[in-house]
Q: What sequence folds into this?
């Protein structure tokens, strides 16, 4: 898990990005950091639960197809804890 270092003293919204594509991860990190969010990331679904416990994010940006465990498996692991059900958004497919 990587965490950005911030100099700001105020409480920032924490966002965890779970994404295995390094180009997508880098783009999301750059945009969200530039908007002032505190960002952590991991690139495996089976590492996401530990990342949540350590970082305690307000929001999770979650890929569905991940190594280790799928994003769906990770999201379903929160259901027994009575967290709000995650909403999903998938990019449009092209070239089909």
A:
């Amino acid at each position: 898990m990587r965490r950005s270092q911030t100099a700001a003293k105020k409480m920032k919204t924490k966002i965890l990005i779970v994404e295995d594509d390094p180009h997508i991860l880098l783009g999301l990190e750059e945009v969200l950091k530039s908007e002032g969010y505190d960002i952590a990331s991991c690139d495996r679904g089976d590492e996401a639960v530990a990342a949540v416990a350590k970082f305690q994010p307000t929001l999770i940006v979650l890929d569905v197809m991940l190594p280790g465990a799928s994003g769906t498996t990770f999201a379903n692991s929160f259901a027994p804890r009575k967290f709000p059900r995650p909403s999903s958004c998938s990019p449009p497919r092209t070239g089909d």
Notes: The mean pLDDT is 81. The chain has one domain: 12-81.
